[in-house]
Every structure is written in structure tokens, then in C-alpha cells.
């Protein structure tokens, strides 16, 4: 890979797992993680024309709104054999469900989305590589973001001896260079210099970055949004009820002036809720991401369903778990999120998953939101295993809240604190004297 096919000369990698010039032979087979976008379309052309390779372009349906027939046709026209896999159900079961139980949000901001999809796509890629006895997996990640870490680490941890090819990273390409390359080689892509955003979408979230967003003063690019409608375009009032069992959503009710619909298929419900809540202005996050290099990068996130589901789960969890359980879980959630975001998935994530599974056994009940034109609030919450006053003492329960016990409890429990304050004053006066 010392050629200047992209207009720049790549250098041999210092990492032993990266495919270098000496590893390449004519006709070598490559499995490319293919989204159909700018990066990976350029990769097909590079592998097919420059490396004289056979390209298997793998596209995984993780809930993105795409015409997969068109993506497949583009891949074939560029010289690849197209492979399509619908992994939405596995994506929910293996990763989104864990993200719900762990309230997985980036620094308490937007729900994780792309970092989760990288894991299920890597699972699928490794499965196909094993079936076809392929030893090289390629992806379109640049060296600027976290996807290089996510893909490389996910693939290497799942498949021993695999070689990885990252043409965009290896050839030091930026967004403008890729667009120029695509135009030169007649590669049809949606990105242009006038609309150079990089968009990544799955059923749990839609992320927009790059281009003008690299300038932190750039105004919100409303033209790049697809799910969330901002006022005055946002629709009218609606209600969303989400029922949980063991920390996971099992039933949804979506209602407005036209009636109420019930959905029990969670994958279908998530995608329906993205539209229902997004049209009412819910789920927009304007956020600064931190790259592995430490550089801050602005990203716009659309995640209507994830925003409501995680909020509902967090409130129901707060009503059901003890303070020690909650504080322990919050610390572990941070560790889990850090692993997913960075791509450096430590084995501790499996331990955290087990903790969340156990803690979630009592997280059950129904949370109802009222939403209207960009505003939302919890209208009602009914926990099954609640520790709130109504759950413990309300109704016809035999147990009553005995207020006579409050003063003795204060005398017993806070006595040492008051003595400590007296000691502090005494010790401080000795030091001053």
C-alpha cells in the first residue's frame, strides 16, 4: 500500500495486525464492512482497482432507514459481491437491552448508539469471515475518531490471526479528499462539499458530524435532521406508556388525538417511537464527543425512542432500588459506557452486565409520558416493587409509617455527627491558640 492511488502515499503500519504491502497478493479476498456511504464506497474502489482484490461488501441492517437494494446495486457496480444481513433483533438482544438496563448515555448526555452498532456489526463480520475462511477484514474508519478502536478491537478480540485493512486511515484521507476521490472515480455518494456531513444511523440513534460541525460556532444544521422535528414544525400532543419487566420494556402504548396503538414487539416499538416522539420534537442532543486522541468534536444526535426509554427506566429504577444499589450501579454504568465508547472493551463489562441483570429483577412497572411540541414530562409512574411512600404504606396495607420513631432515630444516628462538630470546634480552637 505504498501507491498514491488516493493522491497520497501511505506508509507501512507499525501494528502487526494491519495488512501491509508484503501481505498482499492479487486476487486476495477482503470482507468489507459496507454502509454504502462515502468512506466505504471509496474503499471498494481502492481494494478492487488498486489492490486487485475480491471484495465481499457486508451491509448489516441495524434499523437504519436505507434502500438496501440500492446499496447492494452500488456495491456490485463498484466491483464487489454484496452480502446483506438483518441483525436488528440480535442488535436489541445483545447490546441495546444491556444499554437500557445500564442507562447508557454519554456523560449523562445522549444515549449511546453508534458505539453499540459497531459491536453487532463486528459479530456478524467475524461470523461470515469464519464461514468463508477469510483472513482480511476491511472497514472505512478514519484515524480521527473512535471507530478505528471500536472496529479493530472488536474484530481482533473475536477472530485470532485476522488482518485488518483501513484504507481511509492508512492513506490519511480527510472528508474533502474522499469527496474528490469519489467524484474522480464516478462513485455515487450523497456527501458533497455543500453537504459534507457524516451520518451514522441505527434504530437506537442517528449521529451527525463532520463538515461545518467541526466549527463549534456553526448553527444547528436543521437540514441534516431526519427524525426530530423542531418547533414550529413539531406535531401536537401525545402520550407514551412504557411497561417494563426485569428492567426491559415489554409493552408500549402510543396515543394521540387519533387513538391509541399497542406495540409488544420491542424492535418495532423502538422504530415506531422514533417517528412518533421525533415528530413531536423529542430526542435531539447537541453534544461534544471526546475522541480517543482527546480532541473534542461536535456531534448532533437524534434519539427519540432511546431518550424516552432510558428516562423511563431510570425513574422506575430509582423508585425500586436502594440508595446503595443505585450508587454502585451508577459507578458501574460509567465504566460500561467508557468501554463501549472507546472500543477498549475490558472483560469487566461481562461482570457489569451480570450486576445489571440481578439489580434489574425488581425494576418493573409502567411509566407514562405526556409530550407536546418539544416538551415532555412524566405524567404517571406505577412501580411493581416500589420503595416509595404509596408502595410501602399506602392503601389498605397493614404497615404504617410511625412518625414517633423519627426523633429517636435522629438522636441515635446523628449523635456522633454532633459530637464530631463539637470536637472540631475544640480542636480548631487549640490550634489557633
What do you see in this structure?
By secondary structure, the chain is an alpha/beta fold. It is built from 14 helices and 14 strands. It has helices spanning 38-50, 68-77, 88-101, 114-132, 147-158, 167-170, 175-184, 266-278, 304-320, 323-342, 348-359, 389-393, 406-413, 415-432; strands at 29-33, 54-61, 80-86, 136-138, 163-165, 198-202, 205-209, 238-245, 248-256, 259-263, 284-290, 296-302, 365-372, 375-383. The chain has a 5-stranded parallel sheet with strand order 3-2-1-4-5, sandwiched between helices. It has a 5-stranded antiparallel sheet with strand order 10-9-8-13-14, with helices on one face. Strand 11 and strand 12 (296-302) form a beta hairpin. Helix 10 (323-342) packs antiparallel against helix 11. The termini are far apart. The model has no long low-confidence stretch (mean pLDDT 89).
Amino acid at each position: 500500500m505504498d501507491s498514491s492511488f488516493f493522491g497520497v502515499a501511505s506508509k507501512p503500519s507499525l501494528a502487526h495486525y494491519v495488512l501491509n504491502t508484503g501481505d498482499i497478493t492479487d486476487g486476495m479476498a477482503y470482507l468489507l464492512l459496507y454502509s454504502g456511504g462515502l468512506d466505504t464506497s471509496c474503499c471498494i474502489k481502492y481494494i478492487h482497482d488498486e489492490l486487485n482484490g475480491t471484495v465481499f461488501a457486508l451491509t448489516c441492517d441495524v434499523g437504519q432507514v436505507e434502500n438496501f437494494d440500492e446499496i447492494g446495486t452500488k456495491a456490485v457496480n463498484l466491483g464487489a459481491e454484496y452480502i446483506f444481513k438483518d441483525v436488528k433483533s440480535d442488535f436489541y438482544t445483545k447490546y441495546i437491552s444491556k444499554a437500557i438496563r445500564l442507562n447508557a448515555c454519554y456523560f449523562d448526555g445522549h444515549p449511546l448508539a453508534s458505539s453499540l452498532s459497531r459491536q453487532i456489526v463486528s459479530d456478524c463480520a467475524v461470523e461470515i469471515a469464519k464461514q468463508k475462511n477469510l483472513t482480511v477484514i476491511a472497514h472505512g474508519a478514519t484515524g480521527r475518531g473512535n471507530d478505528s478502536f471500536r472496529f479493530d478491537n472488536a474484530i481482533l478480540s473475536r477472530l485470532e490471526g485476522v488482518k485488518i485493512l483501513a484504507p481511509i486511515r492508512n492513506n490519511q484521507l480527510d472528508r474533502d479528499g474522499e469527496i474528490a476521490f469519489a467524484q474522480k472515480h464516478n462513485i455515487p455518494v450523497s456527501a458533497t462539499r455543500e453537504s459534507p456531513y457524516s451520518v451514522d444511523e441505527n434504530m437506537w440513534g442517528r449521529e451527525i458530524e463532520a463538515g461545518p460541525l467541526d466549527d463549534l460556532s456553526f448553527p444547528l444544521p436543521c437540514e441534516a435532521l431526519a427524525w426530530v422535528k423542531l418547533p414550529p414544525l413539531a406535531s401536537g400532543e401525545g402520550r407514551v406508556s412504557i411497561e417494563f419487566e426485569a428492567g426491559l420494556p415489554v409493552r408500549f402504548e402510543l396515543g394521540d388525538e387519533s387513538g391509541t396503538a399497542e406495540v409488544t414487539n420491542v424492535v418495532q416499538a423502538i422504530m415506531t417511537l422514533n417517528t412518533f416522539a421525533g415528530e413531536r420534537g423529542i430526542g435531539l442532543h447537541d453534544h461534544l464527543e471526546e475522541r480517543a486522541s482527546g480532541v473534542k468534536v461536535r456531534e448532533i444526535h437524534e434519539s427519540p425512542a432511546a431518550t424516552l426509554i432510558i428516562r423511563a427506566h431510570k425513574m422506575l429504577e430509582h423508585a425500586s432500588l436502594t440508595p446503595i444499589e443505585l450508587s454502585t450501579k451508577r459507578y458501574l454504568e460509567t465504566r460500561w459506557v467508557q468501554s463501549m465508547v472507546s472500543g477498549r472493551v475490558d472483560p469487566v463489562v461481562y461482570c457489569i452486565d451480570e450486576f445489571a441483570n440481578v439489580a434489574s429483577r425488581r425494576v418493573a412497572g409502567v411509566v407514562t409520558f405526556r409530550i407536546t411540541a418539544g416538551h415532555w414530562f412524566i405524567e404517571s409512574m406505577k412501580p411493581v416493587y416500589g420503595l416509595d411512600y404509596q408502595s410501602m404504606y399506602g392503601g389498605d396495607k397493614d404497615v404504617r409509617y410511625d412518625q414517633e420513631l423519627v426523633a429517636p432515630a435522629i438522636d441515635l444516628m446523628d449523635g456522633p455527627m454532633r459530637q464530631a462538630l463539637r470536637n472540631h470546634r475544640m480542636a480548631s480552637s487549640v490550634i489557633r491558640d
